[in-house]
Amino acid sequence: MALNFLSPTEINSLSFLDTSKSRYNLNLLKNEGVFALKMKDANTVAKRVHCSAQQPPPPAWPGRAVAEPGRKSWDGPKPISIVGSTGSIGTQTLDIVAENPDKFKVVALAAGSNVILLADQIKRFHPQLVAVRNESLVDELKEALADMEDKPEIIPGEQGTIEVARHPDAITVVTGIVGCAGLKPTVAAIEAGKDIALANKETLIAGGPFVLPLAHKHKVKILPADSEHSAIFQCIQGLPEGALRRIILTASGGAFRDWPVDKLKEVKVADALKHPNWNMGKKITVDSATLFNKGLEVIEAHYLFGAEYDDIEIVIHPQSIIHSMIETQDSSVLAQLGWPDMRLPILYTLSWPDRISCSEITWPRLDLCKLGSLTFKAPDNVKYPSMDLAYAAGRAGGTMTGVLSAANEKAVELFIDEKISYLDIFKFVELTCDKHRSELVSLPSLEEIIHYDLWARDYATSLQLSAGLSPVLV
After folding, report:
1. Phi, psi of 334 (to 5 degrees)
2. Do 406 and 457 touch, CB atoms closer than 8 A?
3. How far is the CA of 207 from the CAs of 125, 217, 227, 453, in angstroms?
4. Residue 464, pLDDT score
5. In this structure, are strands 222-224 and 129-132 parallel, antiparallel, or unpaired?
6. Which of 18, 349, 368, 411 could link 197 by a cystine bridge, Cβ 3.0 to 4.6 Å?
7. The model scores a pTM over 0.70
8. pLDDT digit string (tens) for 264-290?
9. Are the C-beta atoms of 268 and 417 separated by less than 8 Å?
């Protein structure tokens, strides 16, 4: 499938949210306390759109996944680096390493500021190199490792994280760091020829136009570590070229899947953090409640698999057993099923194209009879306006997708800090994306991607909603 971006002329002639270009129709409430996203005048023209005659970036997996002829399994423990070792992805990756010491070994770890946990990881897994992003905590880490005989090399700051990502002995790099902070390390790993176990969404959502050509240049595999894209990746194994027809992303529906829409104006932070199926960090749990996580996954699927936005759909699946599906050209639908457990997709990114036998004690097998039934329903666009925002950003392409992600991250942060309401999240993101239309860069450099990520966070921070929910600048 060919990538399908709007042309610069189309971008100029549309408001950011235009229902004629969205898979879903906007039908947002105008009830008391609930804002309505409004289309601008159809003749609105952006001031400036940077364009290029170059072709859009190639997908990581053009509708299929093929291991090169002669690709061999790794002899002995496979060396890996982990960027973001103290986060959810990092700790679960280390659980996998601990259970499979004959299959994997850790050569480098990078963390942010949790030096107590990092010190424990170092003592247990004995990496050669360690990075601490917060440079002020290096002495504290050294003190925690004082009684250790074979101490690792410690490199502070962003440069340390980059060195971990491109460690010469690593075969695969797990990118578990959150936000655009993961972009430079991932680029460094790709340039060093490392396969990427991708758990950092911004790598493709913000950096896709830059990262994908780079990965193709260096013949690097980008292997998705989140459950939905791993499911799609597993389903396309063995498909012939051109066989993929449609991607179906499943969503739990988050904390508010059973709430009536008119109750959303009453949402508190504690409500949004009650995910019915998964135990995750605060940010991703709120994203699941707003369904921004699924909108971002639509964009990521576009870059990973080369599917056009019209061929990527979202369906609510409350049980979270089917992690996603694909439809082939002959209308067959293939699905990947499993208990909600992030370790499985992480494991597959590390072992691909092989499969590793797992203990039934720590990896319970799926019992369909015990499960009983699986249900599905269409997502509610009134409840989840994030979908229209994400599809609009995806179709605009270029730097717009990174701006969407960064604005959402900042808005969620403000919501968790109780500085804005739950419904304000959607409005902050829409306003930031709409403002960016005049500066959109179709094929950005890495520096432009990072610049607009920072710009979006600053702009979203500057927004304030008055009592009447009318946006003003502070």
Report:
1. -110, 140
2. yes
3. 31, 15, 20, 10
4. 67
5. unpaired
6. 349
7. yes
8. 999 999 999 887 766 667 888 899 999
9. no
